[in-house]
Amino acid sequence: MHYNKNLEAENLRYLKLLSTQYPTVRAAAAEIINLQAVMNLPKGTEHFMSDLHGEYEAFLHILNNASGVIKEKVEVLYKNTLPEKDRAILATLIYYTDAKLKEIKETVADLDEWYRITLHRLLEVCRLVASKYTRAKVRQALPKDFAYIIDELLHTNYGELNKENYYANILSTIIEVDQADTFIIAVCDTIKRLVVDRLHIVGDIFDRGPRADIIMDSLMEHHSVDIQWGNHDILWMGAAAGSRTCIANVLNNSMNYSNLEVIETGYGINLRPLALFANEVYQHVNTDCFSPKLSAEHSYNPKDVLLIARMHKAIAIILFKLEGQIVLRNPSFQMEDRLLLDKIDYNAKQITIDGVSYPLSDTEFPTVDPQNPYQLSPEEAELMSQLRFSFQQSEKLQRHAKFLYSKGGLYACCNGNLLFHGCIPMNMDGTFMAFEVNGKSLTGKQFLDYAESMARQGYYARPGSPERQRGKDFLWFLWCGKHSPLFGREKMATFERLLIPDSETWIETKNPYYVYSKKEEICLKILREFGLGEAHSHIINGHIPVKSKDGEQPVKAGGRLIVIDGGFCKAYQPTTGIAGYTLIYNSYGIRISSHEPFAGVDNAIRNNKDILSTAVVFETAEDRIRIADTDEGVKIRDSIRDLKLLLQAYRTGLIKERHTKSIE
Q1: Dist. CA 387–CA 393, nearest whole Å
Q2: I need a surface site. Which of 332, 492, 599, 628 has the fewest CB within 10 A?
Q3: What are the Cα distances from residue 185, in Å, to 98, 128, 262, 399?
Q4: Average pLDDT value over all residues in the chain
Q5: Of 567, 571, 570, which Cα lies nearest the Cα of 582?
Q6: Interatomic CA distance for residues 58 and 593, integer angstroms
């Protein structure tokens, strides 16, 4: 190889920059040795979850137990030496360390002895989960205050006579100085951090469940996470960007499910202006169609239910007006069929859609001007101005939105897998659907890249600019637009479900993707579109719940498509028959777990009850997957190549070594 030719101009400049980090032959060679060794370590564990829908307790439990991986490690170590009850207690202690510690300390007679035994066991679990990583990576995962001590204890051999007393004394001193609880918390946190190398959230963190904000707080604390936006996430991002239409949609969803806790408590958004407006304008108006869906788990004050129904009707009418405005100023969305307010015959109390007239359950819309139905009344405009101010001034919501933008996107390619929430829009003949954008026809990956850039424009473009407005409109399109890649249907029948008794109008026809993606050749075509398609590539998809109770399977298309929306949201569980799917991809292969409904944190802590899960290994690697076989391995190979070029540059004199002088 003629290195001198390769080391000219741009390459040489880059290598000179690299030499500041590795200033000598020895330093560069040492890093090559280290990287070559890392390539042969087992691949880190990836954990996939989707469609969380605000169900924070179930999410946190599955996050803590890593879809059963931690329990599996406890079983590996102690199945033959500890009773099942003790193994369950140890696993629960790892999941919910603070709360379980408090409970145990109230019942244990000899606490010091319990501390000694438990510390040994936890360190053994930690040693097992750390064994697949370099010592340097483990050190990075250790909590700062106890990093040195945990590092020493993890890399000890208790059979070493010279250090036996040294290690025993460390544990005794931890107990003696009343740091056992803090140390146990530190070790358990380390276990949970090391057991999963990367977390993937395949969309829909928000809506329906009680506290999506708690899920977001937890994700922001995670050491390695990426998010593929779902249509419910993009809706909240649009609301945070100040889109009045997205704000109205967020509130409509929350009123529909009587889920105001996340709005008021989670994000501190003031709904009093909406309540005052609704009580004034809709006090003597029928609101039966707008009564919220109530959970059987809670009791409700009838006055509160009536107020929510009035607020729901008020925001729904505003929503229909604002959506009409977006459709009218964006003909490229091709959503004129969603202009329904101007199709109402108030005398006949019916609406005409596609030439067919349907009776309406309610036509008492005091703020709708039949001559100009999509214009907000002055009071509605003032209300939306107040609500937009509240959403944009919510520090927590803005922090979460920025996190979604920084860690998220419409899709991700990771270690041979393609992750996205909704669909790749397709035509009836199985070809990719084309979207006209600025005189160009965009399909497949091109359109998703464009759509993501528009979503970012909606939040980051200059406030008040035409670019910002177009971006905000596009955020709404991604939420419910015709064949949007996040929505994947012809229409969102919000108006019809609320106001038209005829259920034929409620049909939301799915994009042909959901038929064609069951075929292996189509999945391979999609994978190739995104630069994938090797022997072990898959599409990992959310959005459409898998009806397992009807025999539907999450793995389709000869194993090429894995759908992991199994019903985290309690509202979907009667349809799916389970409480969610999650996926684990480790060095041995891929397994999918189905989860039973979660009975709550208190039950988990008090009775050591885990979520009952059934795991199915559907793809096992012939040889254990190494880091060399991953995306990280590609980056490491590039680094090794660059370092070898740097070595050659040192040896040929193109770059001089810089030895630091030793101080005597």
Answers
A1: 10
A2: 332
A3: 7, 17, 29, 27
A4: 90
A5: 567
A6: 14
> What's the CA gap between 33 and 16, in Å, rounded?
21
Q: How many residues does the chain have?
A: 664
pTM of the model: 0.92
Task: For CA atoms 601, 62, 214, 51, give the dihedral sign.
Answer: negative
Residue 100 in 3-state DSSP? helix
Give 609-646 pLDDT, tens digit per residue. Answer: 776 667 677 778 888 999 999 999 999 999 999 999 99
- CB-based contact 84:597 (threshold 8 Å): no
CA dist., res. 613 & res. 606, Å (int): 19
Helix (H, G, I), strand (E, B) or coil at 541: strand
Sheet holding 344-345, edge to edge: 344-345, 350-353, 356-359
Cross-strand pairs, 619: 590
Q: HSE of 250 in the Cβ direction (CA atoms, 13 Å)?
A: 32
Closest by Cα among 477, 413, 485, 405 to 444:
485
Residues facing residue 592 across a β-bridge: 583, 616
Name the percent of the chain in helix, strand, coil, to the closest 5: 55, 10, 35
Q: Residue 61 in contact with residue 95, Cβ under 8 Å?
A: yes
Instruction: Judge contact between 570 and 55, C-beta under 8 A.
Output: yes
What pLDDT sits at residue 54?
Answer: 93
Contacts of 545 (CB under 8 A, 6+ apart): 51, 565, 566, 567, 572, 575, 576
Q: Which of 151, 230, 226 is nearest to 196 (CA)?
A: 226
Distances 142 to 64, 106, 171, 329, 632 between C-alpha atoms, Å:
17, 29, 17, 54, 22
